[in-house]
Amino acid sequence: MASDEEFMQHALKLAERGRGRVMPNPLVGCVLVKDGRIIAEGWHDRIGGLHAEQAAIADAETRGISPQGSTAYITLEPCNHFGRTPPCTEALLWAGVTHVVIGASDPNPTVRGGGSVALRQAGMDVEEGVLADECREQMREFMHWCESKRPYVLLKAALDPSGRIDGDQSEPAERFSSEASLEIVHQLRSESMAILVGINTVIRDDPSLTVRGPDIGTRLPPVRVVIDPSGRIPSDCALMQDSSAPTLLIHCEETNQVHDQPHVERVILSDDDGEISVERVLDMLGDRGIQSLMVEGGADTWRRFLAEEMVDSAHLCRSPFNLAGEDGVTFEEHELTAAGLRRVSVIDVDGDEISSWERDIDHWS
Fold this sequence. Notes:
The structure is a single chain. With 365 residues, this protein is α/β, with parallel strands linked by helices. Helix content is 30%, strand content 24%. The strands form two sheets. A nine-stranded mixed β-sheet has the order 10-9-8-7-11-6-12-14-13, with helices on both faces. It has a five-stranded mixed β-sheet with strand order 2-1-3-4-5, sandwiched between helices. The longest helix is centred in the N-terminal third of the chain and has 12 residues, at 4-15. It is elongated. The two termini are 41 Å apart. The relative contact order is 0.13.
């Protein structure tokens, strides 16, 4: 007979099917078990769709199996409030589930133990904390935002063998990583609620900062954020003209632009010294419900985030191809280490060396 951990591990695999599609909701999976075997399964698949518990109950009904007397294994504490859908606690009670095994408790202020309490008060047997660390890690951006009210920050950088991120400034900017590496970047974008760059990156590269490839379902596309202290953004750049995703411009003071497109919003955000601090940017984005932020460049922006120790993880792609010329802006791995990040994995993707970095807990403690 499978163990509680094995059933919860299966629920975690189910939850992954909603990645990139359910934000700002967390990834959640659920399996219903009776007599030691799985009788139904479900996961949260899209915004406005059934929650994992509701989907598992619906799956049991589709299979013609009664969930009465079953055990539900759920990666996150069931909600006990009305949102886009009715409370999952009510669905579990209505279905006749008698035992609930929960992975992670929900730190969301609208829940915070309310689901477990409601189920126990209704006479249900509730067990908590099974594979809690694994469940929290799967929904780390959601957990981070609930606990800090700031987005989880991922820094993404691409380097040539010499550590350069750009070549000869007199020539157009060039992409030098592989197509497979670019697909990974778009997957990371799809898992982010916002993508941020500095104004120099916009002027130099004219990026679109959109998700191309991965299916993000019915959720809103990532907000494109530009730190533009003095309002230098070109009116004809992609971020200003392409209305497929919202653009948020952060200035130090009011600008004279009055003909913005409807998808463009300007925010004044400066400290007493006239600078825009990373901390205030993250506070502002967190207040808007942004749970995950991908910082794509350039080097000055990366260094600002690293200097204020506001980077939680990093994605570094080192290409084997040299950029044109001999000069150029550089960025190196030791800058991540100095800011409290440690390399946790390295893989080869069509010749590109891609390393993943995470916050070093010992450094931050």
